[in-house]
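Quick one - first record:
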Amino acid sequence: MPKTFFITGIGTEVGKTIVSAIVTEAMQADYWKPIQAGDLHHSDTHKIQKLVKNDQSVFHKNAYALHTPMSPHAAAEIDGIRIDLKEIKRPETDRELVIEGAGGLLVPLNEKEKIADLISKEDVVILVSRHYLGSINHTLLSIENLKNRGFEKIGVIFSGAEHPTTEEAIKIHGEIKVIGRIEEEPYFDEMVISEYAEKFRKRLCEM
C-alpha cells in the first residue's frame, strides 16, 4: 500500500520545501501542499515542480491558496474566510503522497485546529530540524507532541551545517530515527535534489 509522508518542521524556514522535493523525487511520489499562504505566483508547489525531475509525480492543487504570508488562520481572516478541515480532502492517487505542512505542528488553522490535525495516524511524519540556539528544545518539543498524539512513524532530517552535539542530543533524548542530513548547499537544483533522493531512498522505504 502506498505511503503518505507528512513533512513538517520545528519552525519556519528550516528546509521543509527542500525536504519535500527530495522525498517526492526519492519515492516518485505525488506532492500536495494543502494550505499555501502568500507567494501564490512562486508557491512551494511551483518550487517543487522545478526541483523534481521524474515524470511520474503529480502536483495537486492547494485546498486553500491564501494571499498573505502569515500563519494560515491569520491569512484566512484577511481573505475573509475560515479554514475548514472538512474542505481539506487528500487527493486520490495510487502512488506515494508527500504532504507539506505550513510552519510547525502547532501553527493554528482556525480557532480550534492546528497543522498537526491534518496528519493521519498512518502517515510517516518527517520532522525537519535546523540548528540554531534553541533548536534542540524546539525539536524535542515537536517530537514529544507527535508521540503524545499517537504518531509512531516519525523520522528526522537535519538541515544545514553539521552540529554533532545538537544532533546527538536530539537522537538520544528524542529516541527517533534519523533519515539523514542535508548540507548547507550553495544552491539546490534538479541534480542536487536527485543526489539526496538516492541517498535517502532506502531509509525512507524503511519508515
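second record:
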Amino acid sequence: MAALSSITFRASPPAEDAVIAQHFYAMWRDLGIPPDSIQPNWRDIALEFITTARQTLDYQAFVAEVEGAIVGSAGGQRYGGLYPLILSPQNRQYGYIWGVYVEPAYRKQGIATRLTQLVVEHLKNVGCTRAVLNAAPQARSLYAALGFCPGNLMELDLTVDSTGEKQ
C-alpha cells in the first residue's frame, strides 16, 4: 500500500483512454456482473463513448498513479440528458461522474475520494451547476461524505413481472 502522499493525481490525456475503459470494465466485474452479460466489444464501445464525450461534453478523466502505474481513475462530463434540456444552463447544467474505480490493493486510502473531488472541480470549471452519479451500495458513504445527497432516481425492473419472477 502506498501512502496518499506518494500517489500522484492528474488529468488523464486521450492516450490513456484504454486504461479508463479497462477500469470501467473492471468496475462492472467487481459489482458482480458476469462476463457473458458484458458485450464482447466493451472496449470499443467505451472508447467511442469517451471520444465523443471528450469532443461534445467536456469529458475529462483523472487518474491516480503509483510508481508509474495507474491504480485508479474517474471521469466526468457535462450531462447530455435523458429529455429535452429546455432550462437555461446557468440554472441547470448537470455534470455526470462515472467510472470511479480503484484497484483492490489501493482501496480504502482516500484515492476514490480525491479522484471524485478532481472530477467535481472539473465539472465546476466547465459551468456545471450540479454533479450527479450512480453509486454502488458500497460506495454511497464515500459520496455522502463528499456532500452528495440521495437522489430521487427511481427504477422499475422491466425484466420481472409483478410477482418478482423473471419474464
